[in-house]
Amino acid sequence: MHRLYSLALGAMTVALTLTASGASAAKLTREPYLQRVGPDTATVAFRLDTACAPTVRYGTHGSTDQTVTAPTAQTRQALELSGLEPGTEYTYVVDACGSRTSPVTFSTAPVPGTRSVHFTTVGDFGSNNQDQRDVSRAMLGRKPQLFLALGDNAYEMGTEAEFQHNLFEPMAPLLAQVPFFAVPGNHEYETNQGQPYFDNLYLPTSQRGGEYYYSFDWGFVHFVAIDSNCAIGLSSADRCTFEAQQQWVEEDLAASTAPWKIVFFHHPPWSSGDHGSQLKMRREFSPLFEKYGVDLVLTGHDHNYERTHPMRGNEVAPSGATDPVYLVVGSGGAKLRELSIASKPSWSVLRNNSDHGYLDVRVEGGTLTAQMLTPSGKVMDSFTLTKDLPPEPTPPAPGPQPTPGTPSTPGTTPSPGQPPIGGSTQSPPGVVPDLGDPNDPADTVPGCSATPAMTLLPAGMWVLASALHRRRRR
Ligand SMILES: [Fe+2]
């Protein structure tokens, strides 16, 4: 997927260009931020000081020749761009009744099944301090396809004003150019059970849980967002219940045939940080993660970084097992905290409470490579997970078009008799746990851990063939 980011454009993101001096011109009080980005859709949200019906102008190859205009004049706007091309860079500006933003770019999600995904993630950043800005700027510099926010996105109480001041203002350049998907932290729940969080974000939804919990595929990775506040009893029953969410998580994971599965939420099942392990999350959800082949569990809450071995139940998984690896990535900007357990537990591979930073993850084919980076680029941790994938289908030869009736729309459910999309039966157990000493350089340098062996059923062959065919035609 091509993706041409311009740092120069990025630097201009926050600069509004007023093109009219008329008193009727509305001013953006919040820069555009990208929500619900998929292969063919994106939502551009922003706020205005005066009610007006703005227009988003967008297009490919640097043009902005397509438009979508808000149906009503109001100060809170979220305009959906539809009919987009997957894996394609778009430029966009906001025309707000006389004022216009500087052009910036983003890319749509790739064709479902695409075997190359790059994202960054961190939590506990919403402080409007220099550490948050540094982490945010560094993430933008990595040019990720998407950004996962792990909660405590706006300290201290998650109010409307704090979302503006502690999330949208300090992270404006990142959020204007990188699609972001969030889960709520406990601090968001301090105000009306997170209502300002839900008011300000436009998240994917699940039929049962709305924006509280949801999932989406990006390329060949299945992402599942859990509201751990709801799970530990902080929601009223009319909004979100543990039981409904747990059942949905099981059904969602069971239904996914994506080769890679990544779950993210705020409260960590495993942590030796200040708050420690959230045992209900471990007891109630980890068995599902193990049963359905979740590869990575991303959390925050504790203001430090920590990585576990692959875990099964309450123990380190046997050597050669493919059980989930749990991360705490709570070093996004809030003040770092002391660890609650002085001596590193046996289940913990590595921990760091002296550096702010973020996790950069690349999933290429059967290899997931993660780096925990400081804003200056120092590598705090690096690890690799691997699994065997079936070979990618050969691109169709030029000439005759596919047989009539062959699905050509990416993401369409295959007809009976066609191969399933994905398929993640594990045999034999896969990732070999890294049981080494974190003081051993071999255990803390890039590519240290993991060895293969997760065998997958034939995956999404027709989808990939179709995608490749489409790409060749462009
Ligand atoms: Fe928290």
Distance between the termini: 12 Å
- The domain tally reads 2
Q: For this structure, what is the CATH homologous superfamily of the largest domain?
A: Metallo-dependent phosphatases
Bound molecules: fe (ii) ion
Work out the strand percent: 25-35%
Residue stretches low in confidence (pLDDT < 50, at least 5 long) are: 1-23, 401-474
What is the CATH C level class of the largest domain, in words?
Answer: Alpha Beta
CATH architecture of the largest domain: 4-Layer Sandwich
Question: How would you describe what is shown here?
Answer:
Keywords: Glycoprotein, Signal. This is Metallophosphoesterase. GO terms for molecular function: acid phosphatase activity; metal ion binding. Pfam families: DUF7800 (PF25077), Metallophos (PF00149), Metallophos_C (PF14008). The chain has about 475 residues and is of the alpha+beta class. It has two domains: about 100 residues, Immunoglobulins (Immunoglobulin-like, Sandwich); about 270 residues, Purple Acid Phosphatase, chain A, domain 2 (4-Layer Sandwich), CATH 3.60.21.10. About 20% of the residues lie in helices and about 30% in strands. Strands 13, 14, 15, 16, 17, 18, 19 and 20 form an eight-stranded mixed sheet that branches. Strands 1, 4, 5, 7, 8 and 9 form a six-stranded antiparallel sheet that branches. Strands 12-11-10-21-22-23 form a six-stranded mixed sheet, with no helix packed on it. Strand 4 and strand 5 form a beta hairpin. The structure holds fe (ii) ion. Fe (ii) ion (FE2) binds next to loops.
